[in-house]
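[recover] target loaded
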């Protein structure tokens, strides 16, 4: 038994230690040693993951056994820094769509804060179309920092490599905060959301995109659903996302299926994979189509008159 090498944790949403296993890979990661696991971190052949359990109290789907912080740092260090900025049309279109959605209801003034902006497609939309006075970008991959500077188009900006520490940002100054596929990588999402909330000004908006473990895609793909992986210590659904944000004292929570653009050949490969067909490439054009498939976009706000009062549950949308 090698599980003692790993972190043992309670539910990241409500703190309960009562949960039942719901999804596991053929080789449960928690039964393998850390060293035996190393080749699978970025490997493609077989995908073992830590088993996901459903919390009996709140319904959160999370890994009660997961890597320790030092193990995660060790694994990321081993990965070659990602130098290629994937600039395909599908990614650009998807990220532009996210910004357009935020712009419909968020005030585009004050500070702009993004955790994990990657190549900065949303940053450049925000610099071009928003009235932001400062950009705070938390991105551990230093290889993309130059691209991020370019994306801010000369606006005042600070680039920081530590996503866990937002202390450089003055409290109550941020108009729009953005986290795209970040929250499901975080060991303590509640602590991170509380930090972000403190940085938002009254009426400020947080936009989050995550996978949805209650999506049709997850039901169809079952254990092969790609977000069940070593990189995700928990996965969300609209209910658990809303509850988590309420615990972090956010209000005006809106959750909807997000529009994502996918290259057609990529989709075909995934369908083949779900059906158990081993295919390396598909003889299809790499054209993109937009689908509401497997992801949720969440908007949450700090009330204009910020109070400590918990938020009424009827404000959540599934
Ligand atoms: Zn729970």
């Amino acid at each position: 038994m090698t599980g003692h090498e790993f972190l043992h944790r309670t539910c990241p949403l409500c703190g309960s230690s009562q949960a039942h296993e719901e999804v596991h890979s053929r080789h449960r990661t928690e039964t393998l040693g850390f060293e035996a696991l190393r080749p699978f971190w970025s490997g493609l052949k077989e995908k073992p993951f830590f088993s996901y359990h459903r919390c009996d109290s709140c319904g959160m789907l999370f890994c009660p056994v997961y890597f320790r912080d030092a193990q995660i740092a060790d694994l990321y260090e081993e990965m070659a820094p990602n130098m290629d900025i994937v600039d395909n049309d599908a990614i650009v279109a998807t990220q532009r769509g996210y910004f357009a959605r935020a712009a419909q209801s968020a005030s585009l003034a004050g500070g702009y804060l993004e955790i994990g902006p990657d190549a900065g497609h949303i940053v450049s939309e925000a610099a071009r179309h928003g009235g932001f006075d400062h950009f705070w970008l938390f991105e551990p991959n230093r290889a993309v920092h130059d691209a991020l500077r370019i994306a801010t188009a000369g606006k005042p900006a600070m680039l920081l490599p530590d996503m866990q520490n937002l202390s450089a940002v003055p409290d109550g100054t941020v108009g729009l905060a953005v986290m795209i596929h970040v929250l499901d990588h975080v060991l303590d999402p509640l602590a991170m959301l509380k930090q972000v909330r403190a940085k938002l000004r009254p009426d400020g908006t947080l936009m989050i995109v995550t996978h949805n473990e209650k999506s049709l895609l997850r039901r169809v793909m079952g254990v092969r659903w790609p977000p069940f992986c070593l990189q995700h210590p928990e996965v969300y659904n609209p209910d658990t996302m809303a509850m988590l944000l309420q615990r972090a004292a956010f209000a005006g929570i809106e959750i909807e299926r997000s529009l994502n653009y996918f290259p057609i050949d990529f989709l075909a490969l995934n369908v083949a994979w779900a059906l158990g067909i081993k295919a390396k490439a598909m003889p299809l054009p790499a054209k993109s189509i937009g689908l509401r498939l497997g992801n949720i976009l969440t908007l949450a706000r700090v009330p204009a008159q910020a109070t400590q009062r918990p938020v009424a549950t009827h404000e959540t949308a599934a």
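[recover] notes: Residues 89-105 form the longest helix (17 residues).
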